[in-house]
Amino acid sequence: MISCKPDASLNGESFRAGEDRPSSVVESKPRATGLTLDEIVANHLDYLHHEAFFVVSTTFKMTAYRTPWFGLQYDSETVAQGETVGNGALATVRWYDREPVGDGHLQGQFAAFKDVVGDMIDKGVFTPSTARQYLKRKLAERVRDRQELLIPTGESHLEKASLNRS
Q1: Contacts from 107-114 at CB under 8 Å and sequence distance 24+?
Q2: Which has the closest alpha carbon to 114: 77, 76, 78, 144?
Q3: What digits encode the pLDDT tens for the residues 149-162?
Q4: How far is it, in rounded angstroms, from Cα 155 to Cα 158?
Q5: How many CB atoms lie within 10 A of CB 25?
Q6: Is pLDDT at 2 greater than 90 in this prediction?
Q7: Which of 1, 65, 77, 155 is the most core-located residue (most Cβ within 10 A)?
């Protein structure tokens, strides 16, 4: 449970002492420790089931990322199953006045790309491999230099995506 002062406010909702409060969705016990960022995003981060990823430095500087998932099983009738771990990207969240900026727009564009790419797989235009490369390129085009875009290479390494690489 989240501990609040009497008559405290949480996301605009007021709670009085002794009332039930929403529980935290953040697990307090780490699933693993002593891993590099490369190892976490390539071998542990489930891009389908986690919409955000946070890196907190030893000085408590936090970097928030969105986790676009490259799986197409929900966007294509011919793709049976997509890997969820190591099959996505990390895109930093831009902030202005403590609020995310442009985040919903990028998520909407990516969902639309996936819908179209799923159709292209069903029509035989893309293979799953070329579809992933296309999604990476289109995501890099949308992010450009406004955000950092990191994509696992499959070899426990991250590549910083740019428009020059696919």
Answers
A1: 107/66, 107/68, 109/142, 110/68, 110/135, 110/139, 110/142, 113/138, 113/139, 114/72, 114/75
A2: 76
A3: 888 876 555 666 65
A4: 8
A5: 5
A6: no
A7: 65
Q: How far apart are CA 164 and CA 158, in angstroms?
A: 16
Q: What backbone torsions phi and psi does residue 25 show, to the nearest 5 degrees? A: -90, 0
Q: What is d(CA 12, CA 89) in angstroms, rounded to the nearest whole number?
A: 32
Domain range list for the chain: 1-30, 35-160
The whole-number pLDDT of residue 11 equals: 42
In the structure encoding, which two tokens stand for residue 74, read together? 């929900």
Q: Does the pLDDT value for residue 103 go beyond 90?
A: no
Our measurement of the distance from residue 65's CA atom to the centroid of its chain's CA atoms, rounded to an integer in Å, reads 6
Tell me the residue type at 161: A
Residue-level pLDDT at 81: 86
| Three-state DSSP class for residue 152 | strand
Tell me how far CA of residue 146 lies from CA of 7, 104, 106, in angstroms: 40, 15, 12
